[in-house]
Amino acid sequence: MINYTFVKHGPIAKGDSAVVEIEAMSLKKALNSFQTKAGNLKEVLVEWISRKGNPSSKLIKLPIKKRKNKYG
């Protein structure tokens, strides 16, 4: 399991924290889990350390469109 750290960009609701940590097997599964908690965010910065120990980060636009919704 990999720990993914989501750093929220944009307006944050009062009482929300700017950082959310989710443990998942893949980035895709972590994004699906985070998307329900994201609210109306437009983008999020994701940071993680790979299984080999390499740090990575990626800026992702929300909401994520799944394959089913892309192709009809």
Summarize this structure as a short list of keywords or feature phrases.
globular; single chain; alpha+beta; 72 residues; four-stranded antiparallel beta sheet
Summarize the structure.
The protein is 24% helix and 39% strand. By secondary structure, the chain is an alpha+beta fold.
Low-confidence stretches: none
**Radius of gyration from the alpha-carbon trace, in angstroms:** 13 Å
Main beta sheet, described? Answer: 4 strands, antiparallel
Distance between the termini: 32 Å
H and E order: EEHEEH
> Roughly what is the average pLDDT, rounded to an integer?
87
Q: So what's the overall shape?
A: globular
Number of domains: 1
* Total DSSP helices: 2
Number of strands: 4
Task: Label the structural class.
Answer: alpha+beta
Strand ordering within the main sheet? 2-1-3-4
| Beta-strand residue fraction | 35-45%
Helix share, percent: 10-25%
